[in-house]
């Protein structure tokens, strides 16, 4: 199994420092919003990179903006027969209504960032704001796990369950407890969920 991780807007691959699992190769994918004309173009480029991996079994984990990318990459790779699971964390479904979330993320994060880090965040959010989304057509055919925190100030707790309208199979929705928007940075709990899920897949 080869797991590809996509960070949040303004983040880096360091978001997934320490992510190691027995029997799973982990690749942390970096991206910069300023490098792509659209989120679709970013998904195209990243999907091409992922498809070059020699492993016959693939999985994706996307956090916040990374979840939007993971969803789009998943649509591009699901026809290969190699993609087995997609984790969608701290994200609204891709309805195209990202402006409010982008503004909230900038407001929540801006005071703690350096000038350059804030610039990167806004560049990434600008790319996300241009993403038109997809209609709720249950188009993601591979199994999905949706993770959310009830105290996330950016994504209301009611939003994650709406992902079901974009997934052909009912996604597993997991309340990870308190942790805010970047709950994957707070401890081993998220890694445990990922590891258990991929272990079940490996045994099937």
How would you describe this structure to a colleague?
The chain has 204 residues and is α/β, with parallel strands linked by helices. It has one domain (2-203): Alpha/Beta hydrolase fold, catalytic domain (Rossmann fold), CATH 3.40.50.1820. Helices cover 33% and strands 16% of the residues. The longest helix has 15 residues, at 115-129. The two termini are 13 Å apart.
Quickly list its features.
Rossmann fold, alpha/beta, single chain, 204 residues
Distance linking N and C termini: 13 Å
Into which percent range does the helicity of residues fall?
Answer: 25-40%
How many domain modules?
1
* Category by helix and strand content: alpha/beta
Strand content: 15-25%
Strand order of the largest sheet: 2-1-3-4-5-6
What's the story with the biggest beta sheet? 6 strands, parallel
CATH superfamily: Alpha/Beta hydrolase fold, catalytic domain
Return the string of H and E elements.
EEHEHEHHEEH
CATH class: Alpha Beta
What would the average pLDDT be, to the nearest integer?
89
Gyration radius (Cα, Å) is 16 Å
Number of strands: 6
Summarize this entry quickly.
With 204 residues, this protein is of the alpha/beta class.
Describe the secondary-structure layout.
Elements: E1 2-6, E2 25-29, H1 39-51, E3 58-63, H2 65-77, E4 83-89, H3 99-110, H4 115-129, E5 144-148, E6 172-175, H5 189-203
Helix pairs in contact: 1-2, 3-4
């Amino acid at each position: 199994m080869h797991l590809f991780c996509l960070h949040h807007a303004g983040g880096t691959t360091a978001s997934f420092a320490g992510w190691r699992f027995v029997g799973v190769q982990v690749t942390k994918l970096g991206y910069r919003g300023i490098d792509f004309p659209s989120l679709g173009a970013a998904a195209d480029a990243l999907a091409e990179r992922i498809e070059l991996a020699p492993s016959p079994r693939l999985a994706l984990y996307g956090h916040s903006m990374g979840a939007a990318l993971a969803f789009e990459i998943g649509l591009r790779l699901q026809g290969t027969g190699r993609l087995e699971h997609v984790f969608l964390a701290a994200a609204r479904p891709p309805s195209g209504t990202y402006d409010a979330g982008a503004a909230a993320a900038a407001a929540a994060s801006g005071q703690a960032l350096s000038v350059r880090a804030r610039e990167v965040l806004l560049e990434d959010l600008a790319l996300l704001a241009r993403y038109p989304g997809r209609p709720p057509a249950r188009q993601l055919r591979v199994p999905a796990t949706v993770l959310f925190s009830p105290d996330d100030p950016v994504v209301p707790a009611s939003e994650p369950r709406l992902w079901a309208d974009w997934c052909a199979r009912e996604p597993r929705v997991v309340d990870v407890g308190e942790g805010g928007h970047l709950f994957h940075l707070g401890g081993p709990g998220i890694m445990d969920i990922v590891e258990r899920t991929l272990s079940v897949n490996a045994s099937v």
